[in-house]
C-alpha cells in the first residue's frame, strides 16, 4: 500500500514522499475513514444476503407439492 500511496503522490501531485509519510497517510485514512468503508461493506453484505434470501425463498416455493382436495 505504501508504494501505491507514494506513486499517487508522485503521479498526481509531482511530490515524492517517503515510507514514513506514506504510512502516515494510510494511518490517517484508516482512522478517519475506516469506519465509513467498513459500514459500506456491511451494507453491501446485507443487500447481497437479502437478494440471496429472496431467491432462496422463491426456490423453496417452487418445491412445494400440490395438495389433493
TrEMBL record:
What InterPro entries does its record include?
DUF2164
Protein name listed in UniProt: DUF2164 domain-containing protein
Q: What is the lineage of its organism?
A: Bacteria, Bacillati, Bacillota, Bacilli, Bacillales
